[in-house]
Amino acid sequence: MKFILALAKRPYALLLGLLMLSILFAVSIFNSASLETDLTEYMPKTHPAFVASDDSEQLFGIGDAILIVLEDKRGIYNAATIEKIEAITNGLQQDFDAFENVISLTTANNIQSADGFLEVEPFFTGSTSEKALSTLEADVEANPMIYGRNVSKDGTATLIIAELTKDADTKTLQKDLLTWIGQWEGPQTLRIAGRPIIEGSLAELGPKDMAIMFPLVILTMILLLYFLLRSIRDTVLNMVIVLFGTLLAFGTMTLFHIPIYAVDTMIPVMLIAIGVAYGIHMHNTIHHLSTDFPNIGKDELAREAVRQMIRPIFMTALTTAIGFVALMSSQVLPVRYFGLFAAIGVLGEMVLSLLLFPASIHLLGIPKYKQKQQNLTKPSAMTRLNGVIMQRPKFIVVLSVIILVVGIWGTSKVWIDTSFLANFEKDSPIVETDQYVNAKFGGTSTLNIILSSEREDIFKDPTVLQTMDRMQAELESDSIVGNTLSLATFIKQMNQVMEEDTENGYSIPDSQELISQYLLLYEFSGDPQTLEQVIDYTYSKANITVQLKSDSSAVLKGVLATVESYQAAFTALDITIGYAGTGYKTFVFSELLLEGQIISLIISFGIIFVLLALLFRNVRVGIVGTVPIAITAVVNFAVMGILNIPLSSATALITSIAIGIGVDYAIHFLEHYTNTRLAGKNLEEATMETLVYTGRAIIFNAIAVMGGFAILLFSVFPPNRQVGALIILNMATSAIGTLTVLVVLVHYLDRSNHLFPKRINQISQRSIT
């Protein structure tokens, strides 16, 4: 406290230091800030699932690709359209270094037979004569490896698949490709889909979203603070505090070369909404001190304001920071870094609020407030609330229990989803293109099933291939699965053409020798590289690619359950099942998200309980102090479950934030109530005074926080809007719970001599009836 007061007495030095730090952080943000949208960078590199996935991706060349859809409603089998497909394919390879390989109807190979030998030749011969195009159409429709996968079954659309290099910059590529593809429009329609396009769009929209929300939340908070505080001076002080907190969070992030993730775009809104709370409570204390003691001097006012508020503000900032720091238990990197740097911003705001308000007194003098001192005998909202609490405590308890019961039921309906497409409006071009591709083709998302064995050549065994084929058939019976591709698919196609398209030719032969011959003939055909995508050179590891019509992790869970049902069958064949690719990583991402949410909640509640118990030297106070935030957490999850709002990387942050902020109300109430009782007031008088003074600040605090988070409702990202609405609900629940349920519980402890020593309770001259 002495250090804070000493710094506050040197306001010019303090402002100079603040300015220099702000410039440092601003320069760092300007030079180093970058938005990260690559899903692979969201996950811990050392996680076993990701290590195994990365190894399999390298072995089989699994990677993301951009899907260019060319649609010709007249049908694609005409000279102009085929020539355009070929020109686009060649142009992508020549004009972009980001593409490793480009596959289209004009480059794809067809498996055929001639004189007892397998031949692998391109579908497109280079001729666009009527006869050649008719043959092309017939060959495509006869080959299920391309029909319905790369070419729509109605013959009006085809895919051009551009596989990306590992170091491709999706943000730059997405912009350049959208411009480049425009030259090929008309009369055919062109669309672009795929995860890289989604990532690039997120990278573009994120900064734009922040550029809109940041000035909007500043303007809103200025107006709201002035309306609540009626003081230009205190409004300016609050805004300086929250803006510095935002600079501190992002500046520290960039100084340590941590990328900004999409979820981090909410940090400015959160820090601005949270930071004003400390200023509001400082304003409230200075206001009452200067009103109650008109002749108080500058030094005394600054000292007394800091003395009264240093403990509650420090504890409220600490508990809020704990709510954020608890997120670091998550293995999901955006959530972890969000928690760390939001906590840094909160602690910075706390320190600055304790410095700037007393410094302003030394620099500008004692503030003049227009508000008059509260009259405790005059009926007001708080006095009426006090009457309700005194007369109907049982009603409040029963209502709280009902809310908890309904909340627990609603919480059971919460589901997890990490869909990247959920970040866009349902009618956005990104989503509409994705839906079009899913309807016309196999799907825009993939899951790679990796089968492994210690035995070489095991995947030449007919029993193994037939088991794979049965599993693929069951997977394809699921409406969410577009199609599957594996070595079994190749063998079936080889058998069909070698059997000269007999009725039962599209099947796995029963002879391992015949299968080995097919594979040998295929290798001699001049296209062995294609097989490397589905089998390794020892035939001991196989890759099954499953195309999905959704990128939802919730949908993927059902697909994985089908695969796991074959675990026993493959185990009997000495084969283990593993997974790879972005589809699987998305699922693991969702599991880590849930695990992190549970751990962070336990940590938050545990640490906050301990801090409250230590702060008030009473374990029972620690318990009752967590009741309002426990109700808030249950209500939050209940609303999510009832309204079908998924637990995502954005909404997973809400509860920890709500706990960290919501407990602030309990701390301020308990601090003032305790001090008032220890000063000799009886229970009813202490409650009335606490509700009038601290209750007013709590309401102002909640309104300011809700107003700040309300700006998220204007975000272009639907998950951000969900976060904004839910935090508004949480803040209202926390404030109401503190001013009702907590008061009832404190009364119970106080009357039962569990809150203070008996000698304090003997001071009371009245009891609650």
TrEMBL record:
Residues 236-363, 621-748 form the SSD domain. InterPro entries: Acrflvin-R, MMPL_dom, Mycobact_MmpL, SSD. The chain crosses the membrane at residues 210-229, 236-254, 260-280, 313-333, 339-364, 395-416, 598-616, 623-643, 649-670, 691-717, 723-749. GO terms for cellular component: plasma membrane. The keyword Cell membrane applies. SUPFAM superfamilies: Multidrug efflux transporter AcrB transmembrane domain. Pfam families: MMPL (PF03176). The keyword Amino-acid biosynthesis does not apply. Keywords: Cell membrane, Membrane, Transmembrane, Transmembrane helix. It is found in: Cell membrane. This is SSD domain-containing protein. It comes from Sphaerochaeta globosa (strain ATCC BAA-1886 / DSM 22777 / Buddy).
